Each structure stands twice: as structure tokens, then as C-alpha cells.
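Incident review: delayed structure delivery

Summary: a single-chain prediction request sat in the queue longer than the usual turnaround. Root cause was a stuck worker, restarted by the on-call engineer. No data loss occurred. The affected request and its eventual output are reproduced below so the record is complete for anyone auditing the incident later.

Affected input:
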Amino acid sequence: MMNKLILGNVCDVLKTLPSNTIDLVYYDASYLAFNIKNNYNVVINELKEQITEIKRVMKNTGIMYVYLKSTDTEIDYSHYIKTNIDKIFGVNNFRNELVINYPKKENMRNYSKKIRQKYIEKESKNYLMLYDRIYLYSKSEDYYVGNKSLRGNVFNIDKKLWRDKAFFKCLKEIIKLSINNQSFVLFPYMINKEIIDIANELEVKWLGINSLEKIEDVIEEGVYDSTENKLAEKFWNFDKGYYLIKRHTYFEDYVKNMNPFEFESWIIKIFGGKPNIKRQHDKGIDGVDYENRPIQVKKQKRIGRNVVDNFLSAVRRYNKELFETNVKNILPVGYIIAFGFGTGAKNEVERLRKNDNIHIKLVDVEEIVKIDSFDVETEIKMIESKNKKTGLEFTVHINNIKTKIDKYYFDLDYKGGNKIVPDYSSDNGIIRIELEPWMYNMGIAIKCKQNVFVIDRFTIVINGEKDV
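Output delivered after worker restart:
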């Protein structure tokens, strides 16, 4: 299996993985811990579902590191995370607690200005959290964790290092102590560039999952420039290897069989928002994003202008102060998610943007999830190359098509939709090519009876030094 970063709902992706295959899991539970206060039942149910699947995919010799960052609040809710993981793994399979100890001044930067001031003025009624924790769990007594006889469980941070840089240096050391060159490592929340860097540098097989609400963190840190659709130059830190970035696939029947409320909840969660729990009296708002901006979902195609007009009224009613702040700061006031938008809706959104500085984002479902009619798997193998380029063989497997395929097309700069500009073609679905270090957005299409269908799309990142 090649290294992959899969974009999608963490639990949905985990359910597709085979049992007893993972040697080590790095599970960043900080995001869940931070949201427990306001969404206890939702967060804990999500945690339980994910941890149950993680335990299933781990080998009997496997281990899991659970990271909990000191929070930007005066109350630490992370004990709820540990208590619920204990119930699934068993208290006897909790092995240790690793402590990453930061200098007081450095760790204070992790807190908001308001909380820092309370500590400075000695008005706080609580203690300051000066360290992060990493819990170590195993699936059984027969677990592999390397030789730790010469290493204590406290990692003291060098005062000269910036907090985040120091943490990732520690994390790399911890993971490196716990693997060998045959290990298969799972990162259920691969939400920033540093984790990708660590995975590549360790030279092991790895699989990352990036919940879509966090993809912006990766983009902002230089891995991906959404405006240019290319990697930033600073990404090429490694002299070999490659990995795949691909959206998790859902099939049409799975989506069509959902009732409207199930669909609303499902797509909002994958988008990174919080769906409404109540089915009635939602006042045109089906959920909110992580900044509390309204989301409306329509399980329809070609949404018209009237939907935009009604949504704008709902957004204004929902939170007038938030609406005005977003308009002032040129931020989205809300999102409409649907299977397509008509000309009327698009024109109205553009008019609002130009005339009133109101930004409503129209989001096609296909931008959030990959919905396919075809059961396709593109197999990728590394082959010998005569120069500094990376040689790859692509083999397309289609499992549920009865029509004769006349041609396979491969587009290395796929822009989306059903339009393919082929760089390569094949009669049997197999091509062998050599690629320079870069990030390639590949689209694969088939031609059947003069009709062309896009059947697969993914991004492949080739590590190495690029000539510029």
C-alpha cells in the first residue's frame, strides 16, 4: 500500500480499513477535548466511534499515542477523553503518560490574552497548565514499543525553541523510538504540514486522514496553495518518495438512500460544521461552521435565486452582530451546500458581493465529498527511472462496468468537472510515466461509445528537489 492522505470524515475512512493492520497510531485528541464543554454528547459519541474503529484496525502488537494539548481555557476537559478511551481499550492497556514540559513563559503564549492577564494579575482561581500530555495505549499485553530503558517519560523543552517547533521535534523522537522499517503508521488527524513532514522523514508506510474542516490548516502552512492549485516551493524537503492525496469515496446509492435530515447532518459534519440536533423550527439554518457561521443544505440540483434570498434573511436573523462583523471583515456570512446551482443563484451571490460586500459561499456537494457511480481503484507502483525523476506505473481497475471501454485518458492538471485534457492515453488502463518533484492533480477518464466519463481523481505528491 502506498502512502496516502485521505480527505474525509475520520470515522468513515477508518471503517474502510482492514482489521489488524496498523502498528502505531498517533491520535490528536486536542480538538475533541477543546469542544467538549459545549458539545459533550456529540464529541464523546464521535470519540467512542473513532476509538472503536482504531482498536479494530490495530495489530495485537500495536500501540496508540493520544495527544492532548494544554487548552486555551481555565478548565481542562481532557480527563473525559481518557476515561472513555479506557472503557474501550481497557484500563489495563493504558501503559504510560508522557509529559512535554514547556518553560512557563513559552507556554503562556498558548493562552488567550484575557486568560494571560488574569494570571498576571493573580485573579485566576486555577492553576496554569505548563505541559502537554501524550497517553500510551496498547491493544494487548504483547505490544511493541521499542527500547525505552534509557528514556524517561518527561520531555523538557529547550527554551530556545518555539513551542510548536519544540513539540514536533519531541513527537518525531517519540514515534521514532516506537517503530521499525516495517511499521505501518496511522494518523487519524493529519491536520498540519509538520505531521506530513514527520511521516515522510521516518520512511515508513503511513496513512493520514484529514477531516475537511482542517484542510485550511495545511493550506496555510504552505503545503498547498489553493489559488495556484500547486505546492509552495518550500515544501520539497525530502529527496525521495511520494504519496497520494485523495478524497474519501461515497457511492451514489449510499447518498440517495439518506432522508433529507440524515443528509443534512452527514454533509455538515464532513464539511466541518455542527448540524442542528432539532429537526423542526431551524429557521432556515441547518447548522453552523467552526466560526458559528450559518450553513443551509439542499439535497437538490440547480438551486435558484429564491434560496439565496431566503438564506440571506435567515442569516441576518440568526446573529445580527456576527453578520455585520463578517461583512465588515470581508468574510463569508454563511454557506449554502447543494448538488448544483442555477444561473440565478450564482448571479445573485455575485451581485451581493459587488454591491453590498456580502459574501455567501455556494458549495457544491462534490467539492466536499467524492460521489461515484463507478467502483474504481487506481493502483500505483514505483518503477525504475533512468534519471532523477520518479518512475510510476498507474493501473486502473473498474469493477462494475459492463460497457466496452474504448480508451483511458490521464490528465496531470485536472481542473474538475467532466472536462479532461489528456496528457497520456491507454487502451488497457495502464501507463508508465516519469514525474518531476511536484504536486499533480490527476484526473482519469474513460471513453465509451463516444462519451467520456471522469472515473477517478486524486493528487499525487512527488518529493524531491525541484529545478526552478
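Verification: The domain at 375-462 is CATH 2.60.40.3760 (Immunoglobulin-like).
Action items: add queue-age alerting; document worker restart procedure.
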